[in-house]
Design goal:
Two copies of one chain form a homodimer.
Chain A (H helix, E strand, L loop, with lengths): L1 E5 L8 H8 L4 E4 L3 H6 L6 E4 L6 H6 L4 E3 L7 H12 L3 E5 L6 H14 L5 E5 L3 E7 L2 E4 L5 E5 L7 E4 L19 E2 L4 E6 L5 E7 L3
Keywords (chains A, B): ATP-binding, Kinase, Nucleotide-binding, Transferase
GO biological process, one term (chains A, B): thiamine metabolic process
InterPro entries (chains A, B): Thi_PPkinase, Thi_PPkinase-like_C, TPK, TPK_catalytic, TPK_catalytic_sf
Chain lengths: 208, 208
């Protein structure tokens, strides 16, 4: 069961992403993100957040769809994600999770390493690329020449790659910059780690 | 000696940041970022990068200011930073380092933890906030109610805070999201760690 979550960062502009919102089986808007949907006449199934950024008119219009979750420990994206998990959703596409405040961008990306323990698949998509999260060993689809960045939530993870332009050999990536600016040599690449089941967050840059 | 570096992410729109570019003592543009300066009739002192995104006209106009650094290991921002360090600059303000490709944003922010070992001060500023880098213990200026996020390049760093709304007590922040969404209670806050001299990257969100 697939859920699409729209967070309150940069609203996507790519047609493919707008269509994904339009055709979502189950669409959750985080707080103020509903305003962008409203402009495109896209109806979310539910709206989650503390609602401090929604207009009174929208609050009224969507009063039956608003879920109040009073809890200070997690951000709106996590509230939306875990609400969907409780409903049985296990395949997630998250849009609007990057852009604007950079600390929110970093936080949202890192949360993938938590979310993957609660679902089958979760990705963050933007106008610039896609973050996905995997456990080693993994075989990842790519396009030849596609720019790839690799982040390891556990900085001690020792990665080895096949199919990347700049191969990794038992390499740790404690500095976030260290795994960036790589490139796929073909239609897939593989990653494995000394210890199995390590979490890896991958970024596929869009090919323009 | 202060240098201002304009990287090739989102060009700032805030007047305060445009003025900083306009009044910079020494302004370095990374590659295509020079196009934005050109529109505002701001002259960079030097241009650094592989120049694959600069037009022929600009290449000609700035031919005396272009520094070619052929090296695949580091990104344009690092090339610009270390070129300035070699010239004796030790105080850095970096603009345009966030926005657009999210992997570049994350990489640039993490590089602060390297740069701080080579200069007195370095910050990344955007329309949304400012990243700065410090060694513990540190006393940090803030405004009451200002949103603060804390990132530790060494995930084992145990931080304790005074003056934050959600105090840290010997707390490690291995998950990047864990140190976000905090708030300053007054005009400053302090951070110290069990081991002295640990690196901390702070984000001060702009108050709008």
């Amino acid at each position: 069961m697939k859920a699409t979550i729209l967070a309150n960062g940069d609203f996507p502009t790519l047609n493919s992403l707008i269509n994904e919102l339009r055709e979502a089986e189950f669409l959750v808007a985080c707080d103020g993100a509903v305003c962008h949907l409203e402009q495109l006449e896209i109806q979310p199934d539910i709206i989650i957040g503390d609602l401090d950024s929604i207009t009174e008119r929208l609050k009224e219009k969507y009063s039956q769809k608003i879920i109040h979750i009073k809890e200070q420990e997690s951000n709106d994206l996590s509230k939306a994600f875990f609400y969907c998990v409780d409903l049985g959703y296990d395949d997630f596409s998250i849009l609007g999770a990057t852009g604007k405040r950079e600390d929110h961008t970093i936080a949202n990306i890192s949360l993938l390493s938590i979310y993957i323990h609660h679902c089958k698949s979760v990705v963050i998509k933007s106008d610039f690329g896609t973050f996905s999260v995997h456990k080693t060993p993994c075989k990842i689809s790519s396009q030849k020449g596609q720019q790839i960045s690799i982040f390891t939530p556990n900085p001690n993870t020792l990665l080895t790659s096949k199919g990347l332009k700049y191969p990794l050999h038992h390499l740790a990536l404690p500095l976030w910059a260290k795994g960036t600016l790589n490139e796929a040599r073909g239609e897939y690449f593989t990653l494995h780690s000394q210890k199995e089941g390590e979490c890896v967050i991958l970024y596929h840059a869009l090919i323009h």
